[in-house]
Protein backbone atom coordinates (compact mmCIF):
# COMPACT_ATOMS: atom_id res chain seq x y z
CA UNK A 1 0.00 0.00 0.00
CA UNK A 2 2.85 2.38 0.86
CA UNK A 3 6.29 2.12 -0.64
CA UNK A 4 9.04 4.56 0.29
CA UNK A 5 12.28 4.36 -1.62
CA UNK A 6 15.58 6.06 -0.76
CA UNK A 7 13.75 9.03 0.72
CA UNK A 8 15.74 12.09 1.74
CA UNK A 9 13.78 14.97 3.29
CA UNK A 10 14.93 18.46 4.18
CA UNK A 11 13.21 20.81 6.63
CA UNK A 12 14.24 24.48 6.69
CA UNK A 13 17.41 23.60 4.79
CA UNK A 14 18.36 20.81 7.19
CA UNK A 15 18.46 17.17 6.10
CA UNK A 16 16.32 15.20 8.57
CA UNK A 17 15.45 11.94 6.76
CA UNK A 18 18.22 10.16 4.89
CA UNK A 19 17.87 7.40 2.29
CA UNK A 20 14.94 5.86 4.09
CA UNK A 21 13.17 2.75 2.78
CA UNK A 22 9.88 1.46 4.11
CA UNK A 23 7.13 -0.79 2.75
CA UNK A 24 3.76 -1.27 4.36
CA UNK A 25 1.49 -3.85 2.74
CA UNK A 26 -2.29 -3.64 2.65
CA UNK A 27 -3.67 -5.16 5.85
CA UNK A 28 -0.50 -4.48 7.86
CA UNK A 29 0.16 -2.19 10.80
CA UNK A 30 3.71 -1.08 11.50
CA UNK A 31 5.09 0.67 14.56
CA UNK A 32 7.86 3.24 14.50
CA UNK A 33 10.07 3.75 17.54
CA UNK A 34 12.93 6.14 17.95
CA UNK A 35 14.45 8.73 20.28
CA UNK A 36 13.24 12.33 20.37
CA UNK A 37 14.29 14.29 17.35
CA UNK A 38 15.28 11.31 15.17
CA UNK A 39 12.78 12.33 12.47
CA UNK A 40 9.62 10.28 13.11
CA UNK A 41 7.18 13.17 12.81
CA UNK A 42 9.12 14.55 9.85
CA UNK A 43 8.65 11.23 8.06
CA UNK A 44 4.86 11.32 8.54
CA UNK A 45 4.67 14.96 7.46
CA UNK A 46 6.64 14.10 4.31
CA UNK A 47 4.35 11.14 3.58
CA UNK A 48 1.37 13.47 3.84
CA UNK A 49 3.17 16.07 1.72
CA UNK A 50 3.39 19.15 3.90
CA UNK A 51 5.06 21.94 1.90
CA UNK A 52 7.86 22.63 4.44
CA UNK A 53 9.07 19.06 4.13
CA UNK A 54 11.07 18.99 0.91
CA UNK A 55 11.77 15.68 -0.74
CA UNK A 56 15.33 15.96 -2.03
CA UNK A 57 15.65 12.41 -3.27
CA UNK A 58 13.66 9.21 -3.56
CA UNK A 59 9.98 8.47 -3.98
CA UNK A 60 6.75 7.73 -2.14
CA UNK A 61 4.22 5.45 -3.83
CA UNK A 62 0.76 5.01 -2.37
CA UNK A 63 -1.71 2.45 -3.72
CA UNK A 64 0.38 2.22 -6.87
CA UNK A 65 0.42 6.00 -7.48
CA UNK A 66 3.66 7.97 -7.26
CA UNK A 67 2.60 10.70 -4.82
CA UNK A 68 6.05 12.25 -4.29
CA UNK A 69 4.96 15.54 -5.89
CA UNK A 70 1.23 15.40 -5.16
CA UNK A 71 -0.32 18.08 -2.92
CA UNK A 72 -1.59 16.99 0.51
CA UNK A 73 -5.29 17.22 -0.39
CA UNK A 74 -4.78 14.82 -3.31
CA UNK A 75 -3.01 12.36 -1.01
CA UNK A 76 -5.90 12.55 1.43
CA UNK A 77 -8.37 11.93 -1.41
CA UNK A 78 -6.41 8.79 -2.26
CA UNK A 79 -7.14 7.55 1.26
CA UNK A 80 -4.50 8.82 3.68
CA UNK A 81 -5.23 10.18 7.10
CA UNK A 82 -3.11 11.38 9.98
CA UNK A 83 -3.57 12.05 13.64
CA UNK A 84 -1.04 14.69 14.67
CA UNK A 85 1.35 14.75 17.59
CA UNK A 86 0.84 18.50 18.08
CA UNK A 87 -2.13 19.70 16.00
CA UNK A 88 -2.65 23.48 15.88
CA UNK A 89 -5.36 25.40 17.72
CA UNK A 90 -7.96 26.72 15.30
CA UNK A 91 -9.79 29.70 16.75
CA UNK A 92 -13.31 30.17 15.40
CA UNK A 93 -13.68 26.62 14.04
CA UNK A 94 -15.73 24.21 16.12
CA UNK A 95 -14.53 20.65 16.48
CA UNK A 96 -18.00 19.37 15.59
CA UNK A 97 -18.06 21.37 12.35
CA UNK A 98 -14.66 20.05 11.34
CA UNK A 99 -15.70 16.46 12.08
CA UNK A 100 -18.92 17.04 10.14
CA UNK A 101 -16.86 17.96 7.09
CA UNK A 102 -14.50 15.00 7.61
CA UNK A 103 -17.64 12.85 7.61
CA UNK A 104 -18.67 14.38 4.30
CA UNK A 105 -21.67 16.25 5.73
CA UNK A 106 -22.69 19.57 4.20
CA UNK A 107 -25.32 20.75 6.72
CA UNK A 108 -24.45 23.40 9.26
CA UNK A 109 -25.67 21.61 12.31
CA UNK A 110 -23.58 18.87 13.87
CA UNK A 111 -24.77 15.57 12.48
CA UNK A 112 -26.38 12.96 14.76
CA UNK A 113 -23.91 10.50 13.40
CA UNK A 114 -20.99 12.72 14.48
CA UNK A 115 -22.53 13.03 17.96
CA UNK A 116 -22.69 9.22 18.14
CA UNK A 117 -19.04 8.92 17.08
CA UNK A 118 -18.14 11.48 19.77
CA UNK A 119 -19.87 9.40 22.44
CA UNK A 120 -17.65 6.46 21.59
CA UNK A 121 -14.66 8.59 22.60
CA UNK A 122 -16.25 10.19 25.68
CA UNK A 123 -16.63 13.41 23.70
CA UNK A 124 -19.78 15.35 24.63
CA UNK A 125 -21.84 17.71 22.47
CA UNK A 126 -20.54 20.61 24.56
CA UNK A 127 -17.05 19.54 23.69
CA UNK A 128 -17.93 19.31 19.97
CA UNK A 129 -19.02 22.94 20.22
CA UNK A 130 -15.58 24.11 21.38
CA UNK A 131 -12.97 25.60 19.06
CA UNK A 132 -10.54 22.99 17.73
CA UNK A 133 -7.81 22.28 20.29
CA UNK A 134 -8.30 25.59 22.10
CA UNK A 135 -7.54 24.83 25.75
CA UNK A 136 -7.86 21.07 25.20
CA UNK A 137 -5.85 18.94 27.62
CA UNK A 138 -3.23 16.58 26.14
CA UNK A 139 -5.61 13.64 26.33
CA UNK A 140 -8.50 15.64 24.85
CA UNK A 141 -6.33 16.60 21.88
CA UNK A 142 -5.61 12.91 21.21
CA UNK A 143 -9.26 11.89 21.51
CA UNK A 144 -10.27 14.70 19.18
CA UNK A 145 -7.66 13.57 16.64
CA UNK A 146 -8.93 9.98 16.79
CA UNK A 147 -12.51 11.24 16.39
CA UNK A 148 -11.46 12.97 13.16
CA UNK A 149 -9.92 9.71 11.92
CA UNK A 150 -13.08 7.82 12.82
CA UNK A 151 -15.13 10.31 10.81
CA UNK A 152 -12.74 10.32 7.85
CA UNK A 153 -12.15 6.58 7.94
CA UNK A 154 -9.02 6.58 5.73
CA UNK A 155 -7.57 3.42 4.19
CA UNK A 156 -4.09 4.24 5.43
CA UNK A 157 -3.77 5.85 8.84
CA UNK A 158 -0.74 7.44 10.39
CA UNK A 159 -0.87 8.07 14.14
CA UNK A 160 1.79 10.27 15.67
CA UNK A 161 2.03 9.37 19.37
CA UNK A 162 -1.68 8.68 19.91
CA UNK A 163 -0.90 7.62 23.49
CA UNK A 164 1.05 10.58 24.83
CA UNK A 165 -0.83 12.42 27.57
CA UNK A 166 -3.82 10.06 27.51
CA UNK A 167 -5.06 8.69 30.84
CA UNK A 168 -5.43 4.98 31.56
CA UNK A 169 -9.20 4.80 30.98
CA UNK A 170 -9.11 6.58 27.67
CA UNK A 171 -6.08 4.78 26.30
CA UNK A 172 -8.00 1.52 26.21
CA UNK A 173 -10.86 3.28 24.44
CA UNK A 174 -8.48 4.79 21.88
CA UNK A 175 -6.79 1.40 21.43
CA UNK A 176 -10.12 -0.28 20.62
CA UNK A 177 -10.96 2.35 18.04
CA UNK A 178 -7.51 2.17 16.46
CA UNK A 179 -7.91 -1.60 16.11
CA UNK A 180 -11.25 -1.05 14.39
CA UNK A 181 -9.92 1.71 12.12
CA UNK A 182 -7.06 -0.51 10.97
CA UNK A 183 -9.20 -3.63 10.45
CA UNK A 184 -7.39 -5.46 13.25
CA UNK A 185 -10.60 -7.09 14.43
CA UNK A 186 -10.93 -8.87 11.09
CA UNK A 187 -9.22 -12.06 9.98
CA UNK A 188 -5.84 -11.30 8.36
CA UNK A 189 -7.12 -12.23 4.89
CA UNK A 190 -10.02 -9.77 5.21
CA UNK A 191 -7.93 -6.75 6.26
CA UNK A 192 -8.09 -3.94 3.71
CA UNK A 193 -6.56 -1.08 5.66
CA UNK A 194 -3.06 -0.38 6.85
CA UNK A 195 -1.33 1.93 9.27
CA UNK A 196 1.83 3.36 10.74
CA UNK A 197 1.93 4.21 14.44
CA UNK A 198 4.58 6.24 16.20
CA UNK A 199 4.83 5.58 19.90
CA UNK A 200 7.48 6.86 22.22
CA UNK A 201 6.84 4.79 25.30
CA UNK A 202 4.79 2.02 23.71
CA UNK A 203 1.75 2.35 26.02
CA UNK A 204 -0.68 1.96 23.15
CA UNK A 205 0.88 -1.39 22.24
CA UNK A 206 -0.85 -3.02 25.21
CA UNK A 207 -4.14 -2.37 23.49
CA UNK A 208 -3.49 -2.65 19.79
CA UNK A 209 -2.41 -5.42 17.60
CA UNK A 210 0.34 -4.65 15.07
CA UNK A 211 2.66 -6.67 12.84
CA UNK A 212 6.09 -5.16 12.48
CA UNK A 213 8.18 -2.53 14.20
CA UNK A 214 11.05 -0.32 13.13
CA UNK A 215 13.56 1.70 15.08
CA UNK A 216 14.54 5.02 13.59
CA UNK A 217 17.88 6.59 14.45
CA UNK A 218 19.14 9.80 12.97
CA UNK A 219 16.71 9.91 10.04
CA UNK A 220 17.07 6.29 8.98
CA UNK A 221 15.38 2.99 9.72
CA UNK A 222 18.15 1.35 11.73
CA UNK A 223 16.43 -1.89 12.64
CA UNK A 224 13.26 -3.72 11.74
CA UNK A 225 11.58 -6.89 12.94
CA UNK A 226 8.51 -8.54 14.38
CA UNK A 227 6.66 -6.23 16.77
CA UNK A 228 7.13 -8.28 19.96
CA UNK A 229 10.81 -8.82 19.44
CA UNK A 230 11.63 -5.19 18.64
CA UNK A 231 9.37 -3.84 21.41
CA UNK A 232 11.00 -6.08 24.00
CA UNK A 233 14.50 -4.93 23.03
CA UNK A 234 13.48 -1.26 22.91
CA UNK A 235 11.65 -1.28 26.23
CA UNK A 236 14.24 -3.30 28.11
CA UNK A 237 17.48 -2.09 26.63
CA UNK A 238 16.85 1.09 24.68
CA UNK A 239 16.92 2.12 21.04
CA UNK A 240 20.63 1.91 20.33
CA UNK A 241 21.05 -1.49 21.93
CA UNK A 242 18.03 -2.77 20.02
CA UNK A 243 19.75 -1.83 16.80
CA UNK A 244 22.88 -3.72 17.91
CA UNK A 245 20.78 -6.77 18.79
CA UNK A 246 19.05 -6.62 15.42
CA UNK A 247 22.47 -6.62 13.83
CA UNK A 248 21.70 -3.24 12.28
CA UNK A 249 19.32 -4.80 9.79
CA UNK A 250 17.41 -2.04 8.05
CA UNK A 251 14.61 -2.66 5.55
N1 LIG B 1 10.17 23.26 11.01
C1 LIG B 1 11.37 22.86 11.44
N2 LIG B 1 12.42 23.68 11.41
C2 LIG B 1 13.66 23.28 11.81
N3 LIG B 1 13.92 22.04 12.30
C3 LIG B 1 12.91 21.19 12.37
C4 LIG B 1 11.58 21.53 11.95
N4 LIG B 1 10.79 20.45 12.11
C5 LIG B 1 11.58 19.50 12.65
N5 LIG B 1 12.85 19.93 12.79
C6 LIG B 1 13.98 19.20 13.38
O1 LIG B 1 14.01 17.92 12.79
C7 LIG B 1 14.44 16.94 13.72
C8 LIG B 1 13.44 15.81 13.75
O2 LIG B 1 12.21 16.27 14.32
P1 LIG B 1 10.95 15.34 14.45
O3 LIG B 1 10.68 14.73 13.14
O4 LIG B 1 9.87 16.17 15.05
O5 LIG B 1 11.46 14.23 15.48
P2 LIG B 1 10.67 13.12 16.32
O6 LIG B 1 9.24 13.15 15.89
O7 LIG B 1 11.36 11.84 15.99
O8 LIG B 1 10.85 13.48 17.76
C9 LIG B 1 14.59 17.67 15.05
O9 LIG B 1 15.95 17.97 15.23
C10 LIG B 1 13.77 18.91 14.86
O10 LIG B 1 14.23 19.97 15.65
MG1 LIG C 1 7.50 13.55 16.88
In words, what does this structure look like?
- It is a single chain.
- With 251 residues, the protein is α/β, with parallel strands linked by helices.
- The chain has one domain: 3-Layer(aba) Sandwich (Rossmann fold).
- The protein contains nine helices and twelve strands.
- The chain has helices at residues 40-48, 72-77, 95-102, 112-120, 125-128, 138-152, 168-181, 227-237, 239-245; strands at residues 2-11, 14-24, 29-33, 53-62, 65-66, 80-83, 90-94, 131-132, 156-160, 194-198, 212-217, 220-226.
- The strands form three sheets. A six-stranded mixed beta sheet has the order 6-9-10-3-11-12, with helices on both faces.
- Bound molecules: adenosine-5'-diphosphate and magnesium ion.
- The site of magnesium ion has 4 residues, from α1.
Show the helix and strand layout.
Blueprint: E1 2-11, E2 14-24, E3 29-33, H1 40-48, E4 53-62, E5 65-66, H2 72-77, E6 80-83, E7 90-94, H3 95-102, H4 112-120, H5 125-128, E8 131-132, H6 138-152, E9 156-160, H7 168-181, E10 194-198, E11 212-217, E12 220-226, H8 227-237, H9 239-245
Parallel strand pairs: 3-10, 3-11, 6-9, 9-10
Antiparallel strand pairs: 1-2, 1-4, 4-5, 7-8, 11-12
Bound molecules: adenosine-5'-diphosphate (ADP) and magnesium ion.
Amino acid sequence: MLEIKDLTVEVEGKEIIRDLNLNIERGAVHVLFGPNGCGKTTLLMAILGFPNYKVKKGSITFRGVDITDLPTNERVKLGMGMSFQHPPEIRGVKLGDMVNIARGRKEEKIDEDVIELGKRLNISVDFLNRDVNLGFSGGEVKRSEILQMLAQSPEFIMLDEPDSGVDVENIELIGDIINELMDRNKMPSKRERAGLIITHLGFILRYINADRAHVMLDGRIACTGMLDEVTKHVMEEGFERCVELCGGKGV
